[in-house]
Amino acid sequence: MDMKLEVVVLPVSDVDRAKQFYENLGWRVDADFTAGDNWRVVQMTPAGSPCSIHFGKGVTKAVPGSVQNLYLVVSDIEAARKELISRGADVSEAFHFTGFGGARVPGAAPNGDSYATFATFSDPDGNSFLLQQ
Description:
Layout: E1 7-9, H1 15-24, E2 28-34, E3 40-45, E4 52-57, E5 70-73, H2 77-86, E6 95-97, E7 104-106, E8 118-122, E9 128-132
Parallel strand pairs: 1-4, 5-9
Antiparallel strand pairs: 2-3, 3-4, 6-7, 8-9
């Protein structure tokens, strides 16, 4: 039986601010539904991703900014950094680790291995994303 991760819920403090942030990144708005004054859900999807994010009002009891290191896999980390920065995200410099559980080191992985070079950015609430090349 297939089980596909389709949505990750992000806790945010300001729905409209979060929506604007992700729209500025170029993420597609799939839905924006309300039901009264106490419930709203926005669904957005990064370009090329089969998985979306939800955020809103009355959607989760998690603390805004508590979701950390959601992976966004990219084929060219420097191109992804440049694109995200041009769209207003504060993206870290590329880095790698000395090994599994090892220290974080500035710069791309020296051997160019797949899955070994990273960069990070966060939304306005502090929910963070880890770019992985």
